[in-house]
Structure formats: C-alpha cells, structure tokens
Amino acid sequence: MRLLNEDYVGGTLLKDFAYHLGLEWDEDFILKQTKNESFNLLGMELMSRLNQKDLQQDNLNSLLFMARRKFEGAQEKRLKFAVQKDIAKAYVDYFSPSLEWVKQKYFPHKSTLFAPINWDEYQENYTLRDIKKEDWDNIVDFIAQIIVSKNKIIQSLKEN
Prior knowledge:
Blueprint: H1 13-21, H2 41-52, H3 57-71, H4 85-106, H5 133-159
C-alpha cells in the first residue's frame, strides 16, 4: 500500500505500474495531464435544473457527457465549488480516526497522510452568485452542442 502520487515511481500511476511490471518506460510516450475535476458552479446549476426536468433517461447520459466537456473544472475561483465549512469540517472529523488507523498501519513513517486544512483561510463557495457574459457564452455553446449533436443523429437516421 502506498500513497497516491507521493510514492509513485516516476510520479505517475502509469509509470509506477510499468516499473512494477518490469517494463521499460518510453519517455516519448506523453501522458495527458488531467485531474479528477468536479463540475464548476455553473455546470452544477445547469445539471441540477436539467435533473428536475422530465427528460427521457436515455438522454441524461449524453447531456452529462456534453456538460462535462464544457463545465468540468474551474479556471476562476468564483466558479470553483467548495462545500460549506461546517460540512467540510464534519467530513474531516468523521474520517479522521480511520485515516489515523491507515497511517499507523501502513505509513508509520509519515507524520500525516494529507496536508492539514487551514480552516481560518478556508473559503466556502457553493452557490453561483453572479453570471458573467462569458458564462452565457458557455451556456449558449452547450445548447448549440446539443442541437448539433441531435441534428447529426436525426440526419444519420434519415440516411439509414
């Protein structure tokens, strides 16, 4: 058992995996650097409203896929989701004993598994407060993407 990223050979899961399989890593192989990102606040708001509509179940996956491409991650702090401080603290407190057990059992050499959170500087951001011009552009792009996709599907059905 090892900690993510910190203990990986080569700093990535794939390089670590190749190393432990005894494979030589080719540095010409370029990894796309991605993070597991959640929807930004605009995407969360849109998906929340779409979920309230009586859409056919088979449409939800395609909408989710399109929305993820447009609204996942946040470049601007105003759109980055951060849960309410009291909920975040309760989550950390709840899992603290089990994390301590994992640390003692598997990582006794570590002083902590995760960097401590500075609660004085923690900034919650869980509500979309203002929408800017570029947000409207992103919403319109999303709607246009849906229309183009559906038109392609309809056209392919007509051709068959």
